[in-house]
Amino acid sequence: TSEEELFGTTEESPAFAEFLDVLGQRVQLRDFKGFRGGLDVTHGQTGSESVYCHFRDKEIMFHVSTKLPYTEGDAQQLQRKRHIGNDIVAIVFQDENTPFVPDMIASNFLHAFVVVQLEQGGAQGTLYKVSVTARDDVPFFGPPLPDPAVFRKGPEFQEFLLTKLINAEYACYRAEKFAKLEVRAR
C-alpha cells in the first residue's frame, strides 16, 4: 500500500464503518458546536460529516480520510493529507493482514501510529488486533498492549483505544521535534 492508495480510498468497507462506531459518533459538520479539530463547520470545505467523541473531559474530532473531500485527478489527495499529515497520531485501520510501514506517509508531524486490524467479524463478535509504532524519540506510552493484543469490540476496547491515543499524543509532545518547538515558543 502506498501513500496515494491510503489517501485515495473513497469507499468505507463495512468493517471500517463498524470500527468508526467504536471511535465515536458520526456528526454533521455544518454548524457543529463542539471541538472541530480544524474542520470547516461553516462552508463544508472539509466534508459533511466526521467522527467525534467526548471522552474523559476531552473532545476528539477524528480526521477520517474517507470523510474528507476526495479530489478527482489529484493523486496525492492534498486536501486529505493536509489534515491527516499535520496530525501527530494516526490510526491505521486494516481490513486484512497488510504490512504497514510508517514511512509510507511523508509527514513532519506524524510521530505515532496505532494500527488496528480486523481479526474476526461475524456471529462470534468482532475482534481487533492492535499494534503500535512510534518514532524513536517518542517515549513509551500506556496502557501497555496485552499479549496477545486482540480485543473484542465493546466499551472496554473503546476505553483502551482512546486512552492509548491520548497518551500517544502526550508522549509525542515530549519527542525532540516538539520539545524544541515548545522551548522556542516560550
TrEMBL record:
PROSITE patterns referenced in this protein's UniProt entry, alphabetically: RAPGAP
Gene Ontology molecular function terms on file: GTPase activator activity
Record domain Rap-GAP: where: 1-186
InterPro entries: Rap/Ran-GAP_sf, Rap/Ran_GAP_dom, Rap1_Ran_GAP
Signal peptide boundaries: none
Pfam families registered for this protein in UniProt: Rap_GAP (PF02145)
Gene3D superfamilies, per database record: Rap/Ran-GAP (3.40.50.11210)
Cellular component GO terms held in the UniProt record: cytoplasm; membrane
UniProt entry keywords in alphabetical sequence: GTPase activation
Keyword Chaperone attached: no
PANTHER family tied to this protein: RAP GTPASE-ACTIVATING PROTEIN, RAP1 GTPASE-ACTIVATING PROTEIN 1
General function of this protein: GTPase activator for the nuclear Ras-related regulatory protein RAP-1A (KREV-1), converting it to the putatively inactive GDP-bound state.
Name the record gives this protein: RPGP1 protein
Organism per entry: Urocynchramus pylzowi
Source taxonomy: Eukaryota, Metazoa, Chordata, Craniata, Vertebrata
